[in-house]
# Entry
Amino acid sequence: MRRIISALLLLALLLSGCGGVSKEEYDAVVRERDALREELQKQQEKSPGTVTVKVTGEFTATVRSLIPDYETDDETPYMAVATLFQSTPFTIYTGELTKHLEEGETYVFEVEMSRYDIITRQEYESGTLLNPEVAFSMYPFLYISNFRPAEESDCGLDSVHLAYEACET
# Structure
């Protein structure tokens, strides 16, 4: 019995030292981040009419249909055909969240971008690309991070709340 306990204690001590990131790996990642930040600043200096942004926020839309993403799987629905209040239909990739959506129901979709994108200063100031119908085709790194059923106060003309988050370099 003592041997088993001793062996388990020794194993726990050995495993507790495993994992984590070594100082060398951390330093390498920090150097890479700094190099990418410097490259981004150089690009912005070359083209002062651009802004590096992420799109964040939420919008309310009614799911009209659930369809497959024919590029990856032509049977399992991974996309939703949705409409904003009094608008034309557009498609959004909803991935694994699709199985929780129901056709004909209205939801508030939360939007995130997995990385920053570069747009013109005019687009940034006017906000013309902050319409979900346009944004999903313009920003390939934009995705639905979450959703919830819409309440009465979420619907109507003021149902799109997307915004640009500018990159601080």
In short: The chain has four helices and seven strands.
